[in-house]
Amino acid sequence: MKTDRKTVFIALGTLVVGLLLGALFFGGGGHSAASPELATEEHSHPESGLWTCSMHPQVRQSEPGSCPFCGMDLIPVSEGGNDDNPRVLKMSNAAQALADIRTEVVGRSEASASMSINGRIKADERRVQTQTTHFGGRIEKLYKNFEGEYVKKGEKVASIYSPQLVAAQNELLEAKKLASTNPALLEAARKKLKYWKITDEQIAAIEASGEAMRNIDLLSNYEGIILKKLVNNGDHLMEGGALYQIADLTTVWAIFEVYEKDLGKVKLGDKVTFSPNGINQNFEATINFIAPSVESNSRIIEVRADVPNGNGRLKPDMFIKAQIKAVASNELSIPRSAVLWTGKRSVVYVKLANNEGFELREVELGNAIDNHYQVIEGLKAGEEVVVNGTFTLDAEAQLKGKISMMAPSESSGSDHKNGFQEIELPGTINYIESTPRSFKNQLQSLTKAYLTLKDAMVEGLPSSIQAQSQMVSEALKKTDMSLLKGDAHMHWMTLLEPMQQSLSDINSSDNRDQQRLQFINLSKALINAIESFGTTMESPLYVQFCPMANNDKGATWVSAQEEIINPYFGDMMLRCGNVEYTIENNPN
């Protein structure tokens, strides 16, 4: 009987709790959530509604508080009204205010984009000449003996013994004797020497001396710097033999290396600012040539600019770092914070007229211009897009069973070849100023653990990779996401899951190649996190790129050293790659 009575009490208790929850779920449904009176009532009488987490919608509480999973502040469950459109989300004014939803009008702007690239200085090929001898002979003496030496036009560069030239001089001297009776013969002998680039002054000296010169001085046809010395004393040359390559370096070429994936960001006429290694000076130039073909191995396209170099500070083969500034003229653009990425698609939330809610809309984007994206298709000038609170809106849409970034209407159909699918992430958003130092410290520990894992990837021992992957997982678990608030918290959540998944896949595999594939997604997410939130590391970090990784799609990674040590190929292609850009950290 005791057991039966206890069972009855439990059943009655359950019934009472059910009635209370029913009142909480369905009570007060006749009030408008958009009215100021209700907004006040929601805050003063929280028992009239439910509270949930925008990132964990399964959480339902009858009063405000913190999410038991991520520590975020709970938001009220808003009333969507009668809404049959799966792409349109309606939220109460109170919920919008609490989620800090902000919009921006889509407009046309002329914004400048900047892309960091590397390059080198090269002599202008149009100003590079080859000094040759115009007659065959043996070099008796070189007057210019080393590369880099300056040569003036008409200056002596070599003394040459030429039997045919000695014979031609003797013909001249004989013709000179017959000048009074046969002047045409003398003129023909002079022209023969002139064809071999013997100057009038040299011919006059021969005639005045009355003797053939054994050695003839070769005079430079060009002015500039000797780039290459091609002969030595005693060398025999045929007619037309080359002695030097001479370059006029008053104008040089700046050659920049642009990966084919970035070619759309560069066009003729773009301005470029660069600085050479070791010279504390910025130079400016204009892109005037883009190579017509891609280098097959590196997937690099050469882009060129002419640079005045009157002071000679720029030297051929000098390495340079540059910023290319592109101008997007009068094109639609939206802030990066408005864009949500889902697979290869990008979506935004558009605010409908007359406060009819927010529509999830797929858009086609162009180049990144500073903190904006060019809009190719999907939006019109004058429409409003959500630029703050987008993650909250998307979580609310998921909660109501609508189409969202997190719950698309159709599967992506991605090919999970080799068990790997490259992720698409939202663009980086600068939360560095608002990010607590304690979180930056945690991100620093995570980055240091990642760098050790990167070194293990280079060595390529699966067991060592698994061990270091576990260390990164431990560091990731110690990052306290409750330190981040609002959209910053949402952004971290989008990065956290792919990092956790990548580490799990790395740790569960004993295949080096599979581990390296999963390292791609881990690197992408961590780079985004470092750029978005910052770390307290005292030295800069280098974002490096290998165009051959990921089945020639390319992949990035982070390194503490500027030198390329490729984690995706190890000893096979240890130096394959390029420094894309540098992340400067602020330890303060």
Question: What does this molecule look like?
Answer:
There is one protein chain. By secondary structure, the chain is an alpha+beta fold. It is 30% helix and 28% strand. It contains 12 helices and 26 strands. The protein has helices spanning 2-26, 36-44, 93-98, 163-177, 183-195, 200-209, 390-399, 437-459, 462-477, 486-507, 512-533, 549-552, and strands at 51-52, 75-76, 88-89, 102-105, 107-123, 128-132, 137-142, 150-151, 156-161, 215-219, 224-229, 236-237, 242-247, 251-259, 271-276, 283-290, 300-308, 319-335, 340-342, 345-351, 358-369, 372-377, 384-388, 541-546, 555-559, 578-583. α9 packs antiparallel against α10 (486-507) and α10 runs antiparallel to α11. Mean pLDDT is 81; it is low at 5-48 and 410-417.
How do the helices and strands line up, and which of them pair or pack?
Blueprint: H1 2-26, H2 36-44, E1 51-52, E2 75-76, E3 88-89, H3 93-98, E4 102-105, E5 107-123, E6 128-132, E7 137-142, E8 150-151, E9 156-161, H4 163-177, H5 183-195, H6 200-209, E10 215-219, E11 224-229, E12 236-237, E13 242-247, E14 251-259, E15 271-276, E16 283-290, E17 300-308, E18 319-335, E19 340-342, E20 345-351, E21 358-369, E22 372-377, E23 384-388, H7 390-399, H8 437-459, H9 462-477, H10 486-507, H11 512-533, E24 541-546, H12 549-552, E25 555-559, E26 578-583
Antiparallel strand pairs: 1-2, 3-21, 4-23, 5-14, 5-18, 6-13, 7-9, 7-12, 8-11, 9-10, 11-13, 14-17, 15-16, 15-18, 16-17, 18-22, 19-20, 20-21, 20-23, 21-22, 24-25, 24-26
